[in-house]
Amino acid sequence: MKQRFYFDTSVFGGVFDKEFEEETLQLFERVKLGKIICMYSDLTETELLKAPEHIRLYFKNLPKENTERVIINKEIIELATKYIDEKVVGKTSFDDCLHIATATLNKADILVSWNFKHIVNVYRIRGYNSINLRMNYLSLEIRSPKEILEYED
After folding, report:
1. Domain locations in the chain as residue ranges
2. Backbone angle region of 107, left / alpha / beta, with phi > 0 → left and psi within -120 to 50 → alpha
3. In this structure, are residues 125 and 116 in contact, taking their beta carbons and an 8 Å threshold?
4. pLDDT tens digits for range 57-89
5. What's the pTM value of the predicted model, to 2 decimals?
6. What is the DSSP secondary structure assignment for residue 16, as one 8-state letter?
7. Distances (CA, A) of 2 to 31, 40, 88, 126
8. Which of the residues in the chain have pLDDT under 70?
9. What is the arrangement of strands in the sheet containing 110-112, beginning at the earlier edge strand?
């Protein structure tokens, strides 16, 4: 069974960012080859509306058979709110929390992000997963594209 990686919006922007381009393109190559499924949410689509056209086109041109769209629902919003209430991050990071809760409740194998301040941060990850486990959800692996490629077979 193919692994399902939830991509937050930063990964799509990473395709055209000099600092992140190489690893991001390698990860998307795995999506294009059908080695992994790129999960994204309706929030990702909304955030991408604000992105430059070349980023939106890159997203739009991913092979549909290797992507999976998931919808944010009430349970996801409640979990994201719990992350804020327990001060894993501040209120301004609610959309980041929605990505994490979406990946958690849709049982993504890994959440992929270039956001090191609020998402790919060992202290934040511990906070998110502490709440996940207390609420009887699975622990979520959260990694940058670079980390995924470093440890790949």
Report:
1. 3-150
2. left
3. no
4. 999 999 999 999 999 999 999 999 999 999 999
5. 0.95
6. T
7. 10, 16, 31, 26
8. 152-153
9. 67-70, 36-41, 3-7, 110-112, 142-143
